[in-house]
Amino acid sequence: DAKTTQPNSMESNEEEPVHLPCNHSTISGTDYIHWYRQLPSQGPEYVIHGLTSNVNNRMASLAIAEDRKSSTLILHRATLRDAAVYYCILGGATNKLIFGTGTLLAVQP
Amino acid sequence: SAVISQKPSRDICQRGTSLTIQCQVDSQVTMMFWYRQQPGQSLTLIATANQGSEATYESGFVIDKFPISRPNLTFSTLTVSNMSPEDSSIYLCSVEVVGHGEQFFGPGTRLTVL
Fold first, then answer.
1. How far from the centroid of its chain's Cα atoms is residue B104's Cα?
2. Which terminus of chain A faces fewer neighbouring Cβ atoms within 10 Å, N or C?
3. Backbone φ and ψ of A28, nearest 5°
4. Which of B29, B31, B102 to mutate to test the interface with A (most CBs of A within 10 A)?
């Protein structure tokens, strides 16, 4: 399974945008890029996923580099509820999700 | 989306005993998975629960220790056998719903082994 690299932690201020980076230089052509987050004391929840094109949904945007070796999850206006561990995961044909260590996002009021 | 329930939500067990965790989902799903999250750690995939056949285990996990059943499309069980304190973790099931690209996770079962 291809590996991802994320910063261990990041900080943001409430109501400001947050850009969470992820490097995946060994990504294969069929790997989707998935983002999940885990709020304290909860199971992970889906945020967004994409293959090649940038994606938007009600929670976030996903910007994928042209060579697909990196991506950025964008939270447009961080709230206190967005404080969580964010996982960038590559998913292939098996549908398995192999979690890395993720980025712990702290949001300051 | 899918609503997933797990039973029990938490338990405290004695060394050497076994615990069976149930995962029930409210819609038919294609894939079901079991994960372990040790204290302060990320999630580790234990196995894929296959309907009507043996589960597919990840490296480091074996059927004798973590037997899994999946008798139908909406239900699965994970048993943690012959428990030791090192098995103290949160165990989570997840599902992939037909037609969706994402997985949905249950609330987890917090297991403490004394």
1. 13
2. C
3. -95, 170
4. B102
CB contact under 8 A, B92 and A98: no
pLDDT at A30 over 90: no
> What pLDDT sits at residue B100?
65
User: Is the predicted pLDDT of residue A89 greater than 80, yes or no?
Assistant: yes
- Look up residue B108 and give its amino acid: G
| Single-letter residue type at A65 | A
Q: Of B92, B85, B81, B84, which Cα lies nearest the Cα of B25?
A: B92
Measured CA distances, B42 to A1, A50, A72, B21, B53 (Å)? 16, 22, 20, 20, 28
- Residue A45 is nearest to which of B30, B105, B108, comparing CB atoms? B105
What does the mean pLDDT of chain B come to?
A: 93
